[in-house]
Design goal:
Layout (H helix, E strand, L loop, with lengths): L1 H24 L5 E4 L8 E7 L2 E7 L10 E5 L2 E7 L9 E8 H25 L28
Antiparallel strand pairs: 1-2, 2-3, 3-6, 4-5, 5-6
């Protein structure tokens, strides 16, 4: 279990770094991948632009349109309706936008938890919080790195 937690933490940290790079890049360059729009079948696309990840779905144009819907909460935006807002001639689409900062905070949770757990665990088992040296012989100062230990 400990190995899985360490692997998940490293993976989360790597994804966090990639997210921050894409976040910064999204302000200078528009990027999109997905199926091209088709009048005969569903199409999907994922785009990165202006600090957001945008997932857009165009259902089959022959399918029945649903009501128009829009919602914004906590860095997540959801829209369903005409892709050209205010015009009656566009195609029906579903669009989800997730702010990069929301993804970054989510990915930061696991590495931060791992780091905090490691620091507090060292302190409670009698080790130096900085270097992990065993403090049973010298409980007031770490002989390895010189950190002074404060007892509550």
């Amino acid at each position: 279990m400990r190995g899985f937690f360490s692997f998940a933490t490293v993976l989360s940290a790597a994804l966090l770094i990639a997210t921050v790079i894409l976040w910064v890049r999204s302000y200078w360059r528009y990027s999109e991948v997905g199926q091209p729009f088709s009048l005969s079948s569903d199409s999907w696309s994922v785009a990165s632009w202006s600090g957001e990840i945008r997932l857009r779905h165009y259902p089959n144009p022959q399918s029945k349109w649903g009501p128009e819907y829009e919602s914004r909460r906590w860095g997540i935006y959801v829209y369903a309706g005409n892709d050209i807002r205010g015009a009656g001639s566009g195609f029906y689409c579903h669009e989800w936008r997730i702010a990069y900062w929301f993804v970054a905070v989510f990915l930061l949770l696991l590495p931060a938890t791992f780091a905090a757990h490691r620091i507090f665990r060292r302190a409670e088992i009698g080790r130096c919080a900085c270097c992990g040296y065993d403090l049973r012989a010298t409980p007031d100062q770490c002989p390895e790195c010189g950190t002074k230990i404060f007892h509550a």
